[in-house]
Specification:
transcription cis-regulatory region binding, 323 residues, transcription regulation, 434 Repressor (Amino-terminal Domain), Rossmann fold, LacI family transcriptional regulator
């Protein structure tokens, strides 16, 4: 395997000159740069990126920790984060936490060892702030920390109000809300708060169920149990489109007519929402804008710019066939 010394020998320059070319530091004539790059090409030399990042104190790497890249919402969000990070000259190291606090902690420590410039944290475990370094720039997605870490989210409360009012306005008399785990303090809990405020104010019967938003295995079982325990439910506000899709699937299996017997509103407006049969009414999160803003805020932090701690983007109601 070729070394930097081999490159210097072929290019007939010093090792220091090769290092300066690699790290773009100091004045180097174009002739010398061309000689070094030609030598690298001849030797198929690959620079040690970790060593270079230590030298430059910048890796142009961003760590991204999410619960589950298989979830369509996080898959879309990850694609936009990668796109806007690459556009700005950064690459992504992707980590799946699967809501495991131990695994999440391991990934944070790994990202520190790899000298990432910053972390975008989209995972949702209960207690993580004890191991987040205050010196490493961090931006949170759909979660809040206590140590002034900026976060990007959508207007979850307004989304919950839109969804719940729509179901009631469409004539629903008993509405189920399927939320994420409420013991985890995330902005998404405001969907539940909004639901409760609306049903209590409008005096509508309701049912609350909780599930993990990124784990698909239990959705169908939850739907069967919901219809078994509460056969008179005529409206469902689900905190994700994937949950809503499972509700639609099971409703069809047990003979409920959508929208005659049951109306459903999801959340996110992931790509499949318009493809489900019947197509899903949902609250649209601005997924691309969230990804773009998270990258922008992190880069602003790296450049020592002032940023807002709270970044809340608007949501919209997209009405389709399930209401």
């Amino acid at each position: 395997m070729a070394t930097i010394k081999d490159v210097a020998k072929i290019a007939e320059v010093t090792v220091t000159t090769v290092s300066r070319v690699l790290n773009n530091r100091g004045y180097i004539s174009q002739i010398t740069r061309d000689k070094v790059h030609e030598a690298m090409k001849q030797l198929d030399y690959q620079p040690n990126e970790i060593a270079r990042s230590l030298f430059r104190r910048k890796s142009n790497l961003i760590g991204l920790i999410i619960p589950n890249v298989a979830h369509p919402f996080f898959a879309e969000l990850t694609s936009y984060i990668e796109y806007y990070a690459y556009k700005a000259g950064y690459k992504i190291l992707l980590c799946n936490s699967y809501q495991d606090s131990v695994k999440e902690k391991d990934y944070v420590e790994m990202l520190k060892r790899y000298q990432v410039d910053g972390i975008i944290m989209g995972s949702h475990t209960v207690d993580t702030s004890d191991y987040l370094s205050p010196t490493l720039p961090i931006v949170a997605l759909d979660r809040t920390f206590t140590n002034n870490i900026p976060f990007v989210t959508s207007d979850n409360y307004h989304g919950g109000v839109l969804a719940t009012n729509l179901l009631i306005d469409r004539g629903c008399k008993k509405i189920a809300h399927i939320s994420g785990p409420l013991e985890i303090n995330t902005p998404a809990n405001k969907r539940y708060q909004a639901f409760m405020d609306v049903v209590l104010a409008r005096k509508v019967n309701f049912v609350i169920k909780q599930t993990k938003l990124d784990i698909f295995d239990g959705y169908e079982k939850l739907a069967y149990k919901l219809f078994e325990d509460y056969p008179d439910i005529d409206g469902v506000f689900a905190s994700s489109d994937m949950i809503a899709a499972s509700i639609i699937h099971v409703a069809n299996l047990v003979g409920k007519d959508i929208t005659k017997d049951l109306k459903i509103v999801g959340y996110d407006d992931i790509n499949i929402a318009s493809l489900i049969v019947p197509s899903l009414t949902t609250i649209k999160q601005p997924i691309e804008a969230m990804g773009e803003l998270a990258v922008k805020i992190l880069i602003d932090l790296l450049e020592k710019k002032e940023v807002d701690i709270e970044n809340i983007l608007p949501v919209t109601l997209v009405e389709r066939k399930t209401t």
